[in-house]
User: What shape does this take?
Amino acid sequence: MRVLLQRVSAGSVTVNGEVCGEIAAGFVALVGVTHADTEAEAEKLALKTANLRVFSDSEGKMNRSLLDVAGAVLVVSQFTLYADARKGRRPSYIQAAQPDAAEPVIRHYAASLVEAGVRQVEHGVFGALMQVAIHNDGPVTIMLDSELL
Assistant: This one.
């Protein structure tokens, strides 16, 4: 499982011209699931997301977590995190889990964020064509991969 975290001052998801998820400061979490991923990976990455110290303290150092700053998370499914572009010009997505397997894992990641203490967790619409607005703060972008934790 991969989660690309972007620290944001604001983020939103729009589907068919309608905003379906919106946050102020926190993370936009782009989430990709591969075939072997389970709820265990989702829980591990949710805890890492909630406790990752990349928010500024009073001295301007990245020393505070999402929980410390009462930040929000906007969870957006993104199968393209498992794109393999090593050959040819068109990426392969065979490492990405099928939608029926990926959606419950992504939902569990979001639920695990709430369980970890994140007060606001918003969602995109799984499988929809989404327009994602990301106001990257910093910019700070961090890739979490369950295989590397």
Helices lie at 39-51, 99-115. The first helix runs from residue 39 to 51.
